[in-house]
Amino acid sequence: MVVDNKATITYVQLLKEDLVIIRLVPKDGLVPDYQAGQFITLGLPNPNEGGKIVRRAYSIASHPENRKYIELVIRWVRKPLPGRLTTQLFNAKEGDEILWLKPVGKALSINEILPNGEKDNRRIICIGGGTGLAPFVSFAQQLHAIGDKREIIVLHGASYVDELSYKELLIDLENESKIKGKDQWNFKYRAAISRPQEWFNRSWSGQIGRVETFLRPKENEISPLEELVGDKITKENTMFYVCGWQGTIDGVMDFLKPKGFVTEHDKRSDGSFEVKYESYG
Ligand SMILES: Cc1cc2nc3c(=O)[nH]c(=O)nc-3n(C[C@H](O)[C@H](O)[C@H](O)COP(=O)(O)OP(=O)(O)OC[C@H]3O[C@@H](n4cnc5c(N)ncnc54)[C@H](O)[C@@H]3O)c2cc1C
Ligand SMILES: NC(=O)c1ccc[n+]([C@@H]2O[C@H](COP(=O)([O-])OP(=O)(O)OC[C@H]3O[C@@H](n4cnc5c(N)ncnc54)[C@H](OP(=O)(O)O)[C@@H]3O)[C@@H](O)[C@H]2O)c1
Known about the structure:
- The chain is α/β, with parallel strands linked by helices.
- It is built from five helices and twelve strands.
- Helix content is 17%, strand content 31%.
- Helix 3 links the parallel strand 8 (151-158) and strand 9 (186-193).
- The model has no long low-confidence stretch (mean pLDDT 97).
- The structure holds flavin-adenine dinucleotide (FAD) and NADP nicotinamide-adenine-dinucleotide phosphate.
């Protein structure tokens, strides 16, 4: 039988009517151990279903070194029917109780060791579509907290500029990289807006199109991502992590497969791979 733990919602930041950042603190005050890239299962009894507990998975945006709270970024699913849990979550207030199951998930763990036993020092490129950014906010904060020296690039795709959750945090991390120097902290963040023609996005001057367009070579055969890193992206020098719609994973693989990249799911017989992903399914 599933035993739910209890937590208090301690912080609610509505980014827009259907996008929220929330923080939870377990009732016993002890934030569970977890790894960057994992998800937690939240639950609430649903009054429309006779009090039956509806549970759903949410990627953790906070990082394991943060022992104060668990943070999540959640979309209110409204179509075709209001989502069973998110509709309740969007009515929740600071101080309300919520149920949770311990963080799990292996799909997006940060790779540390290569199959030959050597340290994985490849460049890390994280590609998040919409709320699929969450695991990479955890990655970025965790790698920063432990002083990881690898090159890290976070790419975020959203339909609208006000959906660029964590923009400030990620820009601050990039600015710190510029000040400290790449040998201390090597981090860059860029975003892509997929509906640039809409009036609300008129101030956008960055990458346009869905996030995978960062990988599309331009006329000079170099992609915007390669321009950003100033290097040819190869399976020897780069490890990709992708989270979002299956279309985003497929779009990324359309560019990476011809370069010989394989996913962990389809790893080679020697155990090697260059892409980890989690799709919305
Ligand atoms: C590993 C993992 C991590 C995740 N991380 C996040 C995250 O960080 N942030 C986030 O926002 N989400 C995340 N999700 C998604 C989340 O788990 C839920 O799936 C999502 O919040 C919707 O839950 P819900 O109960 O509100 O919707 P549900 O009630 O489950 O509805 C899901 C969809 O089905 C439709 N639907 C429901 N009933 C019917 C019906 N009778 N007929 C037709 N259509 C119907 C709904 O309209 C909706 O589109 C994650 C999922 C996984 C698997
Ligand atoms: N790990 C997980 O399983 C996980 C994690 C987070 C969220 N979710 C769930 O995913 C759902 C929606 O997420 P969201 O609201 O964050 O995304 P979103 O804001 O709807 O979309 C984010 C970006 O992905 C693009 N996109 C939309 N559909 C696509 C497709 N089929 N193929 C490729 N790109 C696509 C969008 O482009 P356009 O502007 O062109 O639409 C936009 O640029 C929610 O139900 C959420 O609960 C699951």
